[in-house]
Every structure is written in C-alpha cells, then in structure tokens.
Amino acid sequence: MPQSERTKPRKLPQQERSKETVEAILIATTHILVESGHESTNTNKIAERAGVSIGSLYQYFPSKEAIIAALIERHADSMTCMIEAKLLDKQEAPLEVALRELVKVCISAHTVNPKLHQVLIKQVPRVGQLEKLNDVEKRVQALIRSYLETQRNQIQPQNLDLAAFMLAHSLESLIHAAAAEPSLAVNEEFEQELTAILLCYLTCGL
Question: Do 132 and 73 touch, CB atoms closer than 8 A?
C-alpha cells in the first residue's frame, strides 16, 4: 500500500455512533503511545484498548500510521486555535504584555500533554504530517507579524517578516528543547527568561 494511502483515513465518521468509535480509537492510541511508545503500538492493542473490533478500526483507518496522522492533525489544530485566540486578543496590548502572553500561550500549547507532543513530533516524518505542523508555524508567524506592524515605532527590527520568523522559531525551538531536557523545568522562571530574550531582540539598541 502506498505511504499516502496508509496515512489517510478510509472514511470520515458521519453518525454519532461512528464518531464515538473514532474518538475511542484516538483516545486509546494516545494512551498507548504515551505509555509504551510508537514501536509497541499496534492496531490490535489499539482496538482492544478502545473496546472495538479490529474490523471496526479498519473501517476508518488502514494502519496505525493513519491513526497517528489523525492525532497529529488534531493536536496541531488544537495548538493553532489556542494560540490564535490569545494572540488575537492581545493585538492592542503593549509590547512587553503581548510578548509575555505569547510565551505563556505557546508554552501551554506545547505542554498540554508533553509526552504525547514529543511522541507525535518524532512521528511527523514517518507519517508525512510535516506540512500540518508547518501550517501552525506559518499561522503563528502571521499573527506575530500583524502585531509587530502595530509596534513598528517601538521595535528595533524593521524587516517584520524576518522578525516574526525569528520570534516564532525561537519560541518553538526553546520550548521544545526545555520540555525534552529533564534537568530543566518549563515554569515561571523559564517563561520570564524567554520573554526577556524576545523583548531584548525587539528593543535592544533603541
């Protein structure tokens, strides 16, 4: 079976009962991935954990990769909605306030289920969902750029496309690195330091 077919759902649930079945499959896969990792996850275990027959699972998903792809898509959509809601609400806020809220919401989006997030990120190349995560980054960059436009006279960088890129990818990289480092804690101190880094980048030299 071609890779593109292995990672696409066979059909979308229409009835309430079928939606409940798919939801049970996704929840079961989440638990198994977090508890046992990708290599120990298979469709038989997922079906058993979800309380559905293997035949019912295959009605909707041709493989475990397709289920993981669906989880990545859901996770990405959830992150996007969370970040968008907060950033749109802070478009009129002063620079330091907006940056602090940006850091907070990005940390929250990445740490709702950090173990699942780490597992899914590692599976992105395998199931071909890089484009979906890139969409999240592009949307966040667009929101940041829109905000920076309102603060053009208050910041040092004048290439706003580049500045938005720098902010978005600095957030992504540092939050991921901290979340994966056992000796570090993504806490209030980390939040303050990251906000200070972003603020300095935008205002140092003014």
Answer: yes
